[in-house]
Amino acid sequence: TQLLEQSPQFLSIQEGENLTVYCNSSSVFSSLQWYRQEPGEGPVLLVTVVTGGEVKKLKRLTFQFGDARKDSSLHITAAQPGDTGLYLCAGGYGNKLVFGAGTILRVKS
Amino acid sequence: GAVVSQHPSRVICKSGTSVKIECRSLDFQATTMFWYRQFPKQSLMLMATSNEGSKATYEQGVEKDKFLINHASLTLSTLTVTSAHPEDSSFYICSARDRGSPPDTQYFGPGTRLTVL
């Protein structure tokens, strides 16, 4: 059973556009992490959010953790071709990380 | 800091042979390491959790006799795919938890691409 639903699954946009990726669950997580992964490489941690309602910004990326710690979003402003990759959300659940299905983002120049 | 390495990065083997993949934490002690499997354009699937000095805990549906995990030291865990078959071909990724970091923090290795002919 997939505890963390991530959407959209695929996203193809033009350079300069904005986008938002969502992760939703009926479960409460101790934390929510976002990763970016390029083909043939391991995931690279972008951010960890821990507190309900928390918002973190990383240059053009804005991450939000829901008040109830059940959902999170990643917003990218003015996307660039270098943002292309697989974005994964992961929730801390017990002793493990539960991963969403991933969002494949392609930014065309 | 918090670097995790994997070796080899890529391996091709014949069906029926066994393959060992190493996961090392280079600059920290990892009391817990995790092994994941990833199919093309899909997310990570946790296979097992490995604690130093004890038996690994396998996720439902993962054959422990097929995927042997050893975590003999605080910096090394190994995954051995025994009697590999083409359906075992996949991208295997390990991660490690630093005892000094928050419980949910995992540092990922670069992955190992296994191709079974």
Provide the fold topology.
The complex is a heterodimer of chains A (109) and B (117).
Chain A: E1 5-7, E2 10-14, E3 19-24, E4 32-37, E5 44-49, E6 55-58, E7 61-65, E8 71-76, E9 85-93, E10 96-99, E11 103-108
Parallel strand pairs in A: 2-11
Antiparallel strand pairs in A: 1-3, 3-8, 4-5, 4-9, 6-7, 7-8, 9-10, 9-11
Chain B: E1 4-7, E2 10-13, E3 19-25, E4 30-38, E5 44-51, E6 57-58, E7 67-73, E8 76-81, E9 90-98, E10 107-108, E11 112-116
Parallel strand pairs in B: 2-11
Antiparallel strand pairs in B: 1-3, 3-8, 4-5, 4-9, 5-6, 7-8, 9-10, 9-11
Please, could you describe this protein's structure?
The complex is a heterodimer of chains A (109) and B (117). Chain A is mostly beta strands and 109 residues long. In chain A, 0% of the residues lie in helices and 55% in strands. In chain A, the strands form 2 sheets. In chain A, strands 2, 4, 5, 9, 10 and 11 form a 6-stranded mixed β-sheet that branches. Chain A has a 5-stranded antiparallel β-sheet with strand order 1-3-8-7-6, with no helix packed on it. Chain B contains no helices and 11 strands. In chain B, strands 2, 4, 5, 6, 9, 10 and 11 form a 7-stranded mixed β-sheet that branches. In chain B, a hairpin with an 8-residue loop joins strand 9 (90-98) and strand 10. The model of chain B has no long low-confidence stretch (mean pLDDT 92). The interface between A and B is medium-sized, with 24 and 25 residues.
